[in-house]
């Protein structure tokens, strides 16, 4: 009996010993409480924390792991809090980094994962310094900011450190070299700005190192060659210069080397051929020069090779006569490598190839049959000189997902079997393709993007969509399509470009069925009638271009109710009546922000896009798509609009360009125009405007293009830092009696003071801004709005002086 009692007592004692320490339990409950108190807008606990309560052992809680090595207590050694706030509603406040403070008191922690939680703020350095046993720390995909705390580099037991996808800034301390047990270091996708410290070479146990997408500059330190255990090295998307270390091949364990999108010069180091384990080599978009060495293709394990966008050259004839490559490539990207001649024949033996990019080269000849039979998933051959018809065999492949052949010399009709393809992205712009668009193309249910622009397609456009169609982007502009605009254009269409065709008739009455439409371009057609009410009901519309048609009637006031409309071009039509005063309510034009339409938001595929080509300020300019900011534009020029300019337009403070020239406006220019702080181009020419130019124009600090000619304006031209630069008689020609230094005509001495206050009634009348921005001489309205078309190639607009009678068809390139 005594033995039984002793056994029970021992069992009870052992049971209590296996509980987590009470202080750690209370600390975890405090952490939970701080998360709950962070937002009072929700009731349920975040994901996984509902099991955390005071009545249970914390070692039994979800997301918590305790040690099993101790016979007296079970300290918490692991917290897996990945995405634990995923259950928070969108309106909940983001978690502040101060909420993590309780966790930093659990000194027994060996593993801490708080990734993907959108936590914001700085990492408490003094707190994290307590976690001296920590071996695994994952804080990726949050919103941590400030510098990486130096205390973190004192955690000498760390083997895994991931701080990627945050907002860290400042420099990378040389103290990083003290983490000599590190096997994985990932600082990618932050804003760290410094040279790579040479001390990083002290991390001789590193297997994976990523500094991708930061602001590192200077050269790659030679000490990197000390990392002999390194398997993956990624320094891409920085500003590194100098050359690739000559002995990079001494890192014999490398399986992946990514140095893309830097400023590295010199040639490809011959030592790379020693990297027998190399599977991925990405050196694209640098300043590398010289010939692409053929020995690269003898690295047997090489699967991914990207050398595009350098100053490299390729000897096609030598490659075709050399021995068969030993590698079995899955992805080959040689964009802009000066490859001439036919598509390299040796590729016909690459049976594993799923991605091929030979764009922006000098390839010529037909599309080879053997390439059509390879069953490649992505083929990008844009910007070459390839010619002839497209082989029907190409569209029999069940693997082909992306076909980009834009800006070549392909000709003939599209194969009738194109509807059998399983393709998602079809880009054939800028060729010489002709004939009708095959009806079967609309039955490709996987098709997301269709670009047939700038060809010679003719006939009527009669799409018959698959009910399951996913088509979101349609560009058939600059062809010879005729007939009415189809009544059905897909209820999932987001971008529709039918401009520069020969379409006629009226706008369909059921346009509102395209409830997701964001971009509508119908410019340079023969469309007649009024703007239907259904068009004004598309609440998602951001860009509307109806320029150069024969539309008439009054401009619908309901256009002002479209909340996202920021690009509106109705120029060169026959609209009459007045500008609706409610146009001052165009919300998206009153705000300065980026255009929300983005191809990267619509499609999930990786293609190297060309810069956006736009006509802006009388020249063709390329704007990088990765940092492009779209302008808000309003162009109502060359119509029959009359009345006074509504002062309410002054609320459109996000406008960059305003053009209401060549109309019948009368009265004065609203003084509220002086509040258009972002205005760069303003054209009010060829109207019947009278009175003085408002002195508030002196406040237009961004204005660099101004045309007030051919009106009845008088008085002094306003002075100011920017107005003083807008000199030249052409800007002010053919007015009643203007004077000022801009036209080299002195004003009388007895003119009223420039800054005299307006009468109260005049101020109230012109209380809001009415303005217009344009590039003098041509309709730029929608030109800058082709952000969403940035991979359709060069884009040009007809000069403004080509009026309605001089249609674009008489001078098209076809």
Automatic annotation (TrEMBL):
Residues 1-19 form the signal peptide. Residues 744-766 are annotated as: Disordered. Its main location: membrane. One of its GO terms (cellular component) is plasma membrane. It is a single-pass type I membrane protein. The chain crosses the membrane at residues 777-797. This is Leucine-rich repeat-containing N-terminal plant-type domain-containing protein. It comes from Stephania japonica.
């Amino acid at each position: 009996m005594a033995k039984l009692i002793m056994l029970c007592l021992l069992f009870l004692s052992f049971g209590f010993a296996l509980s987590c320490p009470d202080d750690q339990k209370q600390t975890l409950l405090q952490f939970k409480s701080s998360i709950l108190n962070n937002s009072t807008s929700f009731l349920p606990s975040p994901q996984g924390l509902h099991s955390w309560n005071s009545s249970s052992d914390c070692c039994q809680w979800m997301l918590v792991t305790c040690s099993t090595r101790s016979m007296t207590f079970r300290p918490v050694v692991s917290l897996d809090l990945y995405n634990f706030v995923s259950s928070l509603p969108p309106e909940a406040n983001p978690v502040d980094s101060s909420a993590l403070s309780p966790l930093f008191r659990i000194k027994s922690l060996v593993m801490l994962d708080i990734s993907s939680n959108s936590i914001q703020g700085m990492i408490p350095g003094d707190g994290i310094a307590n976690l001296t046993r920590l071996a695994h720390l994952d804080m990726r995909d949050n919103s941590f900011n400030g510098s990486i705390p130096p205390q973190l580099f004192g955690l000498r037991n760390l083997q895994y450190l991931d701080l990627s996808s945050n907002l860290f800034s400042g420099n990378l301390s040389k103290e990083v070299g003290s983490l000599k047990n590190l096997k994985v270091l990932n600082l990618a996708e932050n804003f760290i700005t410094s040279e790579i410290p040479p001390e990083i070479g002290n991390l001789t146990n590193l297997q994976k190192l990523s500094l991708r997408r930061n602001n590192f500059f200077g050269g790659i330190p030679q000490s990197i060659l000390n990392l002999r255990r390194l398997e993956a090295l990624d320094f891409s998307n920085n500003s590194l210069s100098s050359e690739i270390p000559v002995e990079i091949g001494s890192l014999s364990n490398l399986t992946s080397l990514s140095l893309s999108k830097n400023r590295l010069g010199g040639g490809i180091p011959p030592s790379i051929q020693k990297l027998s384990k190399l599977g991925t080599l990405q050196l694209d978009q640098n300043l590398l020069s010289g010939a692409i060495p053929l020995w690269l293709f003898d690295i047997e394990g090489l699967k991914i090779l990207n050398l595009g966008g350098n100053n490299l050259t390729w000897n096609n004839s030598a490659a075709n006569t050399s021995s068969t490559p030993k590698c079995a490539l899955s992805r080959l990207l040689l964009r802009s490598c000066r490859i001439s001649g036919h598509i390299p024949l040796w590729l016909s033996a690459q049976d594993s190839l799923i991605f091929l990019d030979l764009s922006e080269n000098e390839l010529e000849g037909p599309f080879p049959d053997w390439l059509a039979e390879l069953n490649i998933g992505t083929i990008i051959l844009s910007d070459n000189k390839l010619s002839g018809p497209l082989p029907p065999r190409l569209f029999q492949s069940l693997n082909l997902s992306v076909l980009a052949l834009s800006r070549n010399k392909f000709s003939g009709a599209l194969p009738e079997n194109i509807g059998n393809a399983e393709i998602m992205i079809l880009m054939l712009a800028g060729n010489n393709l002709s004939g009708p668009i095959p009806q079967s193309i609309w039955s490709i249910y996987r098709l997301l993007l269709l670009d047939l622009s700038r060809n010679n397609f003719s006939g009527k456009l009669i799409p018959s969509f698959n009910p399951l169609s996913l088509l979101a982007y349609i560009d058939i502009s600059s062809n010879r399509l005729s007939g009415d605009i189809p009544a059905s254009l897909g209820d999932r269409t987001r971008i529709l470009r039918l401009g520069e065709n020969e379409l006629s008739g009226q706008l369909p009455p059921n346009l509102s069925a395209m409830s997701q439409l964001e971009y509508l371009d119908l410019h340079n057609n023969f469309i007649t009638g009024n703007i239907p009410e259904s068009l004004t009901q598309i609440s998602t519309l951001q860009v509307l271009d109806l320029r150069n048609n024969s539309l008439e009637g009054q401009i619908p006031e309901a256009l002002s109710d479209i909340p996202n409309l920021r690009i509106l071009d109705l120029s060169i039509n026959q609209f009459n009546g007045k500008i609706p005063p409610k146009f001052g309510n165009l919300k998206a034009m009153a705000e300065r922000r980026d255009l929300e339409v983005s191809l990267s938001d619509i499609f999930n595929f990786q293609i190297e896009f060309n810069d956006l080509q736009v006509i802006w300020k009388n020249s063709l300019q390329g704007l990088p798509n990765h940092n492009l900011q779209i302008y808000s534009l309003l162009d109502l020029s060359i119509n029959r609009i009359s009345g006074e300019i509504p002062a309410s337009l002054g609320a459109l403070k996000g406008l960059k360009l305003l053009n209401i020239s060549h109309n019948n406006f009368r009265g004065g220019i609203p003084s509220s125009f002086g509040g258009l702080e972002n205005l760069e181009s303003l054209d009010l020419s060829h109207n019947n405007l009278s009175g003085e130019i408002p002195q508030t124009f002196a406040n237009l600090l961004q204005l660099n293009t101004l045309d007030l000619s051919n009106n009845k304006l008088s008085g002094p031209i306003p002075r100011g830092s920017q107005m003083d630069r807008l000199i030249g008689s052409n800007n002010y020609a053919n007015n009643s009696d203007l004077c000022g230094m801009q036209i080299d005509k002195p004003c009388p001495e007895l003119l009223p003071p420039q800054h005299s206050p307006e009468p109260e009634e005049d101020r109230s009348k012109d209380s809001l801004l009415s303005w217009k921005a344009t590039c003098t001489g041509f309709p730029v309205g929608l030109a800058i709005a082709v952000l969403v078309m940035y991979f359709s190639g060069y884009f040009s607009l007809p000069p403004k002086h080509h009026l309605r009678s001089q249609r674009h068809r008489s001078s098209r390139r076809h």
